[in-house]
Design goal:
The protein is built from ten helices and ten strands. Helix 2 links the parallel strand 1 (about 20-25) and strand 2. A seven-stranded parallel β-sheet has the order 3-2-1-4-5-6-9, with helices on both faces. It has helices spanning about 10, 30-40, 70-80, 100-120, 145-165, 190-195, 215-225, 245-260, 280-290, 295-315, and strands at about 20-25, 45-50, 60-65, 85, 125-130, 170-175, 175-180, 210-215, 235-240, 245.
Length: about 325
């Protein structure tokens, strides 16, 4: 897929000629981050569990499973990255017991392996992607709502430990409800957009659940800032808009932007039980990174609709 991204000159300089390792580079967020880093002049090393052809001189694919410590040592020893962005892992909100071991391996074990080897060999910055599904700290005993949330929560704890005990400069960033061009069509926004463009009624839950929605370009800006600011080491930073918007409102915006006459089927699916609603702490993100989102919800949705509209018109979606 082709995604056009822009970057200011002052953002580009810090990564020029630097070796940057990205796990999960073939995913939605990783793909956008690779594009942004490519424009910044970074030497990008992308890790995938399947064989991939190198696309350009500035990006080299490495084949390997980061839950295997020998693989992590081999790749990091050869690359010697200045920055590691760890974005990979099995992503699912499902709560089945069959997901406990897969999420443990793909999310937690891979994180601990990367932190351990980075501490052994040295690394200028490790950026870990946390999840908004992690338990919210409060006065009660926090319990994760899924194996995915538990693995992410534990990975964040390990990241903080490696900073406190071993001085590894780890920054934990928590992207909120990220959306934009190129997202998996099984996710809410692309699913609704494609349904409306095809004049098919999207089947949805009640639409009452609220989320903090953030455009992908703003998230990649935040990830790159987290890799640069020395004072951010050891911090856990939210990347969100600071505003809650219900799904029903998002869907109505998409109906208006697509011009579709199709009526979405709210209530066709059950709401997820006990799904938490969480607002990003944007004040802390600005304090630590001088970062704030620049793309408004309507602008981001418009860009996303137009990207998928073009894909539908050429028969690529």
């Amino acid at each position: 897929m082709t995604i056009l991204l822009t970057m200011n000159n002052d953002q580009a300089t810090p990564f020029l000629g630097k070796e940057v390792l990205i796990t999960g580079a073939s995913g939605f967020l990783g793909w956008h981050l690779c594009r942004r880093l490519d424009e910044s002049g970074a030497e990008i090393h992308a890790v995938s569990r399947i064989e991939r052809a190198n696309e350009r001189n500035s990006l080299r694919w490495w084949n390997g499973d980061m839950s295997d410590i020998a693989t992590v040592r081999r790749i990091l020893l050869e690359v010697r990255p200045h920055v590691i962005f760890h974005l990979s892992g099995l992503v699912t909100a499902a709560s089945g017991v069959d997901l406990v071991l897969p999420t443990l391996q793909s999310l937690l074990v891979s994180t601990v392996n990367i932190l351990t080897v980075a501490a052994e060999f040295g690394c200028g910055r490790v950026v870990l992607a946390a999840s908004l599904t992690e338990p919210i700290p409060d006065n009660t005993e926090a319990t994760p709502g899924s194996p995915y949330a538990a693995a992410k929560w534990a990975g964040s704890a390990y990241g903080r430990m490696f900073w406190q005990l071993y001085g590894l400069p780890v920054v934990i960033v928590r992207p909120f409800m990220t959306y934009g061009p190129g997202q998996d069509i099984g996710k809410l926004i692309p699913y609704v957009i494609l349904s409306l463009l095809r004049e098919e009624a999207p089947r949805l839950s009640s639409g009452k659940w609220e989320a903090d929605w953030i455009y992908v370009d703003d998230v990649t800006d935040g990830l790159m800032a987290a890799a640069q600011v020395p004072e951010a080491a050891g911090s856990t930073i939210d990347l969100g808009s600071g505003t809650m918007v219900p799904i029903r409102t998002i869907v109505q915006h998409l109906v208006d932007l697509t011009g579709s006459q199709t009526v979405p089927m709210f209530g066709a699916l059950a709401d997820r039980p006990n799904e938490q609603m969480r607002l990003a702490d944007v004040a802390y993100a600005y304090e630590m990174l001088s970062w704030r989102p620049h793309v408004s919800l309507m602008e981001g949705l418009q860009r996303t609709v137009e990207w998928y509209r073009q894909r539908v018109e050429i028969g690529a979606a």
